[in-house]
Amino acid sequence: MMTHDQSLIFEISKEGRIGHSLPELDVPEVDINHLIPKEMQRTEAPELPEVSELQLVRHYTALSRRNHGVDSGFYPLGSCTMKYNPKINEDVARYAGFAHLHPYQPEETIQGALELMYKLQGSLEEITGMDQVTLQPAAGAHGEWTGLMLIRAYHEANGDFQRTKVIVPDSAHGTNPASATVAGFDSVTVRSNEKGLVDLDHLREVVGDDTAALMLTNPNTLGLFEEQIVEMAKIVHDAGGKLYYDGANSNAILGITRPGDMGFDVVHLNLHKTFTTPHGGGGPGSGPVGVKKDLVPYLPKPIVAVKEEAGEARYYFDYDIPDSIGRVKPYYGNFGINVRAYTYIRTMGPDGLRNVSEYAVLNANYMLRRLEPYYDAPYTQHCKHEFVLSGRRQKKLGVRTLDIAKRLLDFGYHPPTIYFPLNVEECLMIEPTETESKETLDEFIEAMIQIAKEAEENPEIVQEAPHHTVIDRLDETTAARKPILRYTKEA
Amino acid sequence: MHKRLAKGEKKLKFRYLPMTEQDQKQMMDTIGIKELEELFQDIPKEIRYDGRLNIEEALDETKLVKEMTRLAETNINVKQYMSFLGAGVYEHYIPSVVNHMLLRSEFYTAYTPYQPEISQGELQAIFEFQTMISELTGMDIANSSMYDGPTALAEAAMMSAGQTKKKTILVSKTVHPESREVLKSNAKGQNLHVVEIDEKDGVTDVEDLSAKYNEDTACVIVQYPNFLGNLEDLAAIEKIAHQGKGLFVVSSNPLSLGVLKPPGEFGADVVVGDVQPFGIPTQLGGPHCGYFAVTKKLMRKVPGRLVGQTTDVNGKRGFVLTLQAREQHIRRDKATSNICSNQALNALGASIAMAAIGKRGVKDMATQNIQKAHYAKNKLKEKGVEIVYDQPFFNEFVVRLPKPIEEVNKELLNHKILGGFDLSRHYSDKENMMLIAVTELRTKEEIDEFASVLGGIK
């Protein structure tokens, strides 16, 4: 018998209740049958809930209390950069002058919005060392696909139709090979060496005149800087390929090094990681793409540009990009998210952004050194903004990394990323970010040490975790075998 | 070199950075380094950035608010002027409660709900969203959201090609022009062939569709209500779409489905669109929130995240991300879509709005759009403005004016009116034609004024 302690909104619905106040219908009402043919009218009303405003508020407040965000507690989810989401960003994005603009308003009525977009493009160009940025892509994966389509257009313009392969390291995010496939490429995996870095000999083997691009995250998903990046860039460029920078880990390098200087030709940034826009429970994000000069002609249109008119700057959408790959997103990207990111960049300035990366890296190294006596650290060099541990020592005691993650829930933490990257056994990937205090890091470290001890002395407590959450471990197998993807009113 | 880095900050300058000098020293001792710089030794000197980023200086909060206010107030927003713009993005009533609930930071500061035990709130909210979209569209299943309507439409085309193993996408010219542009960019990646179906009298030319449909057709895509505001004859189009193996894809404004018969009842295989009309501000076109609904048969082909109901070890109901074998992080290069982040928070906002508006309200709100738009059409006709099509429509219709719409809209601005969309931007045969949207927010008085001004334009 299934029980529950949280109703669905449909289960508290009662006929006749309303939670809104629509405007009056102040025009003479005409019989709807004279306006819409009967056969085009719906006969059965959609089963939307009927609740009062307070019921609605209680419902969503209750749901929010069954959710953990960065504001609830530490969230060291590797490769996701779960840093603080500043409140002022939320205020600014809600200013009527940003929130209530229509995308088809005349340009002269949205000069402030265009100026913001232009300045954000410019800031991101400087931060990444690229020549031109587009703000159109909606998220990281969308940026990856856009960047790869740009590379494809570039090769095809050169008559290089045989460049069908995208090289991706074995530690890459799953979106990399998926984006390559969706952009019409085949992906080829390049191995990592024992230091956790790309195996250069293997790279030389797989690179050829069929190479379209190498996609790389640097620092990589193990949190390690690919120190041979200059050599790698040379190998790929000599073969006629392009270098794609997955910006998921940019939080380690702001003001310290730039993808453009490392030799990358295309970059995407995840503004919802590095630039503090909230993850929103899975989105919306924003994934601007920056490119070097020779790829500029293929950028999606429009780009925000500026010209001088009667001694004044006039911002406009430039659609004059004849070789453009076309449009990747309606309108101009996730503007509301871009407003937040620009607000953040203006808050931090050049020194603040550099501090961000310095402290993110310091925090990660501190945690790594304090945890390595208790968990296996497969890579011992200094890490960047994140690091990986392996739970293989605990696995021998019958405690899996999944159990460790679940046990952390009892301490009020969101667990690290687990079982990724794929090339580390029982992987735990930890990213503290720069916005966490030393006290928070210390408390988390103590919890991790306690769990390591429990694994030795009292493994059941870890294996059976969590003990203090609103729900226990869920039956995911049945969920996938007999999917129930919507509520259906019981007859 | 790197002197600033080696010394660290003398004082806490940034409110988001809690590192004190003492913290820094203790942490460096634990690590066994003397200078922060040592942590960056693995970055080769030749690619180190030695300068200071050439971006604008940091602002304190007061100056920041001032500067961002300046930028915002340089714009004219749709709350200041009377707007008749639609064309895919609509200004609607947003209950105040929506924003209050969205500001519960347990929602907006959370990541994707990969740890279900501490993400039940988000997971349940998405499950409810999936249900509401299924209800509105008349489909079996809906996913947790897509970036926006147009990218959802492009994904529908790619899913159709994958499902049918066919390469031709038939899309009506009455589908949003920017959706078709996004579709073409995506099709190129997948080497699909996009063929456009002509428009006739403001709707899809059924004869042209019939002529272009062949055994390589992966899907037929139409929009309902279409980009010109008119209602397509879905029953007739469905017959053609299903005469071979092709799928029938309908892009639909979900608000209109409060009154209109849903595409699911016309035999659509996929219904996509944007839930922006429910609680999401226009914000210059994004972020909005795409939806993607399908029949049960296509359940395992859906792109993006799906939430399913299950139980925990004690038999208590709970929710999890499910059928993840479809997704990029599992399938990697075998994935048929690369979507990862979606628009979860906006799906939540739309759910709250849909719940507030409710079963009765959605019909009332859709009806108001129909009534007010038809009133506006008649009023304009009275004032001598030419109405271009004689088709049933929802909340948008097309007028022809004596001069280019760009010029008309400049004149309208002087009257504090944001005129409709200039169709000549996308249709060479629609010079001087304006697409006018009238939602429940326009009052009779505003519509009358608009009609007078527009009728007076010579």
Automatic annotation (TrEMBL), chain A:
The modification N6-(pyridoxal phosphate)lysine is found at residue 273. The gene is gcvPB. Its EC number is 1.4.4.2. One of its GO terms (molecular function) is glycine dehydrogenase (decarboxylating) activity. It catalyses: N(6)-[(R)-lipoyl]-L-lysyl-[glycine-cleavage complex H protein] + glycine + H(+) = N(6)-[(R)-S(8)-aminomethyldihydrolipoyl]-L-lysyl-[glycine-cleavage complex H protein] + CO2. It comes from Evansella alkalicola. Residues 32-314 form the Glycine cleavage system P-protein N-terminal domain. Keywords: Oxidoreductase, Pyridoxal phosphate. Its cofactor is pyridoxal 5'-phosphate. The glycine cleavage system catalyzes the degradation of glycine. The P protein binds the alpha-amino group of glycine through its pyridoxal phosphate cofactor; CO(2) is released and the remaining methylamine moiety is then transferred to the lipoamide cofactor of the H protein. The lineage of its organism: Bacteria, Bacillati, Bacillota, Bacilli, Bacillales. This is Probable glycine dehydrogenase (decarboxylating) subunit 2. Belongs to the GcvP family. C-terminal subunit subfamily. InterPro entries: GcvPB, GDC-P_C, GDC-P_N, GDC_P, PyrdxlP-dep_Trfase, PyrdxlP-dep_Trfase_major, PyrdxlP-dep_Trfase_small. HAMAP family: GcvPB (MF_00713). The glycine cleavage system is composed of four proteins: P, T, L and H. In this organism, the P 'protein' is a heterodimer of two subunits. Residues 357-458 form the Glycine dehydrogenase C-terminal domain.
